[in-house]
Structures
1.
Amino acid sequence: MQVKAREVYVPPVLQDLRAGTAELHIALEKRLPFFSDTLDINAFKRLMQAYYGFYQPLEQALLDSGVIPDDFDLTPRLKAATLYADLQTLGAASTMLSLCRELPLINASAASLGVLYVLEGATLGGQILRREIAARLNLDADNGAAFLDIYGAATGRRWRDFIEYLGSRPLDAAERAAVVAAAQTTFSCFERWLESQEVLA
Ligand code: HEM
């Protein structure tokens, strides 16, 4: 009997996103200090403060944008509150934390989807980072690193749900280009922000 390999459908917008952001992902991943020998608890706190300084205003911008498609449920995908709770657990929370002001422009639903692609995709790498931080700093979801495991065992399913949603949206070529451009800007804004906070290698 012939067994056909399971075919996973990759929608055109996802092909474009992957082609358009792969290099940006590799470049950022190389500079993030999660695997650095010098990453101690203080460096981790500073890194998570810098993450919060990006996620908080970016999620607020998504909420304020008015262009999130009506059938997309953003609330269960918001992560800044979990990041803040981690900072509180770590004794690193403060109302004085710097917040990024140079954010991607979210002026159409296509742009919102590009931003969301980056924020949702980051939960996948989060699973690798979670293991590293548990091994290295003894931190997990209960004592200050819940953000890295934000969707827990549902990580894969939630990513597939997002991709399915993305693939189900009717997007013309111009809109697909706008999705990719927003994703690229999200990566570059994040990298510039982290650099300005002096947490990158
Ligand atoms: C050292 C840090 C990071 C590592 C080691 C890492 C690693 C990974 C890995 C292994 C995947 C593929 C997972 C899979 O297919 O199951 C992935 C996907 C992804 N990551 Fe990262 N990542 C890191 C940081 C980030 C950051 C900071 C962002 C954005 C803010 C990001 C955005 C994405 C996106 C959008 C995808 C989805 C790619 C796709 O399948 O279309 N990653 N990452």
2.
Amino acid sequence: MTAFDQVVLSTQRLLLRPLAAADAGALMAIYADPEVMRYGSSPPWDSIEKADAQIVRDREAMAAGHFLRLGLQRVDDGALIGTCTLFNLDPPCRRAEIGYALAVSAWSRGYMREALPALIDFGFEAMDLNRIEADIDPRNTASTKSIERQGFVREGYLRERWIVQGVFSDTALYALLRSDWQAQRRKVALG
Ligand SMILES: CC(C)(COP(=O)(O)OP(=O)(O)OC[C@H]1O[C@@H](n2cnc3c(N)ncnc32)[C@H](O)[C@@H]1OP(=O)(O)O)[C@@H](O)C(=O)NCCC(=O)NCCS
């Protein structure tokens, strides 16, 4: 199994890198924000210990090659503004799920639009995935647009799959195949 704890990717404005113990405060600020957690299946974080524990768990899972979560560090000022993740890896079927979150102060500036192609490229190339899935709350317009912009195709609609803040919530299931991604890349390259 390939280890992911040394993976670093870069884009024009961002460094995508593993989280370290020193990121706990910034991570807590993101995941304790009810606006960020609005469509999540777990409540906003209520203590810094949650951040510390997640960083430790991530390190172990990434070293074992079971999971990939990268922090999004803004190059300009070094601030940690979000995370993006490939999880629920299924190596025999070469499949994973994608997830992401940004601090509200960084929304609507195209950061996730910039980060996702780097993560997706890594998934299809270095990790040799064939399929990446996204489970999106259909009410989450920003997330829907983010994933559709990368070429994900809506494949299904699962009713009342989650309970989000006490309310039954649906899933729009999206997926991107390696062949879809390669075709998009060829189209861009040909102009
Ligand atoms: C999803 C998320 C990462 C998007 O980040 P972002 O930087 O704001 O994304 P962008 O600025 O690139 O916006 C994405 C698109 O959504 C649109 N958008 C953003 N907020 C919107 C809103 N409230 N209503 C309608 N459209 C919205 C933008 O105009 C943009 O459209 P475009 O691609 O056609 O230009 C961010 O909203 C977030 O962290 N949400 C909380 C966590 C979350 O829901 N994660 C996903 C779980 S599946």
